[in-house]
Design a protein that fits this description.
It is a single chain. By secondary structure, the chain is an alpha+beta fold. The protein folds into two domains: 97 residues, no CATH class; 121 residues, no CATH class. Helices cover 28% and strands 17% of the residues. The chain has six helices and eight strands, in the order βββαβαββαββααα. Strands 1-2-3-5-4 form a five-stranded mixed barrel. A three-stranded antiparallel β-sheet has the order 6-7-8, with no helix packed on it. The model has no long low-confidence stretch (mean pLDDT 94).
Length: 255
């Protein structure tokens, strides 16, 4: 189920950079006393990474997949003045305003497919979501999954929905097949047909409109080719509905 709106918090302290990510996310404390892994609007990948994080993450949550809670994080660039690292300080100064946070999972471990045996039904559902959204970043080299209290969680969806980097050519992606050969769960006998049967009926226009409404207007404004944020939201809905209708993106997997 969708929350209706994303929780909004105010950053009170920048704790440390997390240099494992190419976009230089950081651990941030907020006014709700929570800790968040924040992806910043001023990073090189820009706002579309944050849009993809919200759309794919919240779509996954609506389909019953484990995604850490997302929150909108209001960040005052003044917080970055005391940061000694010039690269980080520049990033924080460029990120005044609304950024995206993911609930920090203390003590979590990186997912290792050789050490953790994923259930085939779970593997099928994760692969199905990644295929629908064109996730190019859940390989065995970079699983973008965490283990927390013995359970897997899906993180880092900024590399999904790559069609939105070229709206003029977005139609070409509607039927593009998904290559699952490098997927981290391809060796877990993913039950893709069962996942498709269970999840496809849920991804309808109502669900997609609910998901795109979670994206703040400020991340959709001044998009080339669109007059309003609502027009951009409509384009996301149309594209994903067309992809659902086509279905040739479903990958071939060995049983």
């Amino acid at each position: 189920m969708l929350a209706g709106v994303l929780k909004k918090v105010i950053a009170t302290r920048y704790v440390l950079p997390l240099r494992e990510g190419g976009s230089l996310p950081g651990l941030v404390e907020a006014d709700d006393l929570g800790m968040y892994v924040v992806k910043f609007i001023g990073a090189g990948q820009g706002r579309k990474t944050l849009v993809a994080e919200v759309l794919t993450g919240e779509l996954g949550r609506a389909l019953g997949l484990p995604v850490p809670e997302l929150a909108l994080v209001e960040f005052d660039a003044v917080i970055g003045r005391g940061e000694p690292d010039p690269e980080v300080q520049e990033l924080l100064k460029a990120s005044d305003g609304l950024n995206l946070g993911m609930d920090f999972l203390p003590g979590s471990l990186g997912f290792d497919p050789l050490a953790f045996e994923a259930d085939s039904a779970f593997a099928g559902r994760v692969l199905w979501l990644d295929a629908l959204t064109g996730n190019v970043d859940r390989s065995w080299r970079n699983p973008n999954m965490l283990l927390w209290h013995g359970a897997p969680y899906l993180i880092d969806h900024g590399a999904t929905l790559i069609f939105h980097h070229s709206w003029a050519n977005a139609d070409r992606f509607v039927s593009r097949p998904y290559d699952a050969s490098d997927h981290v769960l391809s060796g877990s006998s993913p039950e893709l047909a069962a996942a498709d049967a269970a999840l496809a009926p849920l991804v309808d226009e109502e669900l997609l409109r609910g998901v795109v409404e979670l994206v703040p207007d400020v991340w959709l404004e001044e998009e080339p080719g669109f007059d309003t944020p609502e027009a951009v939201r409509e384009a996301y809905v149309r594209h994903l509905l067309a992809r659902m209708a086509d279905r040739s993106w479903l990958p071939e997997v060995s049983s």
